[in-house]
Design a protein that fits this description.
By secondary structure, the chain is mainly beta. β4 and β5 form a beta hairpin. It starts with 7 loop residues before the first strand and ends with a helix.
Length: 190
């Protein structure tokens, strides 16, 4: 598996990871890493969906803004994008610099019901586990190390380094990307 540490960002008190969708880079994370949920209204104002100082390089201060493009509070997954580049051009530029310096992860689907996978600890190399798919959610079994709360929002990685899901709990259910990402985003990825 290739080194994916460059794909990981700090998101709130947890983490997230960068993916490439069409010509833009997005951040996938656990919804509970957001300081608050955006309003459940398609007519919400952009300011209600934009978070100040939410993102940063792992281990450093969070100083980059992001807009929530999608959130599922039940599955506990969120997708973040650039702030509005018209009203918040400086913040949008900072977002682009941050995610532009990251290596985007490929998104893949779990083939079969069970597979070997990798998780990223807070420090050090990835470690192994087994993931089991149940109803679109992923359950983590037999992790080689303890899964810590600060790992929330980290990817669950296939053996080839692609992202299968998002860590939201030590065991499960954790959102599988093929099931819990929104359809508009999946159509941009596949």
């Amino acid at each position: 598996m290739t080194d994916v540490a460059n794909s990981i960002l700090r998101v709130g008190e947890g983490r997230g990871f960068v993916i490439a969708a069409n010509s833009r880079r997005l951040v996938v994370t656990a919804a509970h890493c957001l300081p608050r949920l955006p309003p459940a209204a398609s007519i919400s104002h952009i300011s209600e969906r934009t978070y100040r100082n939410l993102l940063g390089v792992t281990g450093k201060r969070r100083n980059v803004w992001a807009e929530c493009l999608f959130v599922d509070p039940v599955a506990d997954i969120a997708v973040l994008g650039s702030p509005d580049d018209q009203d918040l051009s400086e913040q949008a530029d900072a977002y682009e610099r941050l995610v532009g310096g990251a290596t985007p992860l490929e998104v893949s689907e779990l083939h079969g019901e069970t597979a070997k996978a990798q998780l990223l600890p807070l420090h050090g190399p990835s470690f192994s586990c087994v993931v089991k798919a149940i109803g679109g959610a992923l359950w983590i079994e037999n992790p080689a190390q303890k899964i810590k709360g600060e790992m929330s929002g980290s990817p669950i990685l296939a053996e080839d380094g692609s992202a299968l899901g998002v860590i939201v709990t030590p065991h499960g259910p954790n959102p599988g990307l093929e099931t819990h990402l929104p359809g508009w985003l999946l159509s941009e990825l596949w």
